[in-house]
Amino acid sequence: MNIFHKPPLRGHILLQREKSGKLKMELFIVFKMLRAEGVTDSDILSWWNLSKKEQLEIIQQDIRLIKSFTKTFIKKVNHRLDEIYSFMEKVFPQFIRYTSKMDISATSPLPYELKKRVREYFELRSIEELNIIKADSENFPNMNAYIRHLIKNKRI
Predict the structure, then answer these.
(1) Which of 46, 96, 114, 150 sits at a 20 to 30 Å CA gap from 58?
(2) Closest by alpha carbon to 108, among 93, 125, 121, 126?
(3) How much is the pTM?
(4) At residue 118, does pLDDT exceed 70?
């Protein structure tokens, strides 16, 4: 036995099962929904190869960011909570773990599998490009709808 041999990571196992048609029905439905959202094998590997602890840390970091932004916005600008959430939906992508029972629309939260690719896309943009993105995104009900548009048009 090779002591340096690591077992395959969860993402690799799930992709193998998907390709062989051996995913459990609930995961089959989730993966079908993910694929419909433009999630690639690479996206699945980047999320599902993380430990559950690492995934939870990312989710908690998102929650902390939203809470912090909301508190700061309330103190400095004195807007109602619904106005703040509406503004945040226009500016920040929202992510969620997918389940087989989700109802997805253009404005729904994006799957966490896309988070890394979306973050990298925005991080690589110049200030000028970000200004164009901001202007373009105004034509959509929220940032998630705009991101879905970019994915559909193979820009992300």
Answers:
(1) 150
(2) 93
(3) 0.87
(4) yes
Helix (H, G, I), strand (E, B) or coil at 51: coil
What is the C-alpha separation between 28 and 120, in angstroms, rounded?
A: 27
Query: Is the Cα dihedral 78, 80, 85, 91 positive or negative?
Result: negative
Where are any strands of DSSP class E within 7-143? 95-96, 110-111
Instruction: Give the C-alpha separation, 135 to 137, whole Å.
Output: 6
Quick check: 117 and 150 in contact, CB under 8 A? no
Angstrom distance (rounded) from CA 110 to CA 28? 18
Task: Give Cα separations from 110 to 9, 41, 81 (angstroms).
Answer: 23, 16, 22
Return d(Cα 89, Cα 23) in angstroms, integer: 33
Per-residue pLDDT tens digits for 1-54: 556 666 679 999 999 999 999 999 999 999 999 999 999 999 999 999 999 999
As given in the structure block, the two tokens for residue 6 are 């690591």
Q: 104-118 burial, b for 16+ CB within 10 Å, e for fewer?
A: eeeebbbbbbbbbbb
- Under DSSP, is residue 141 helix (H, G, I), strand (E, B) or coil? coil
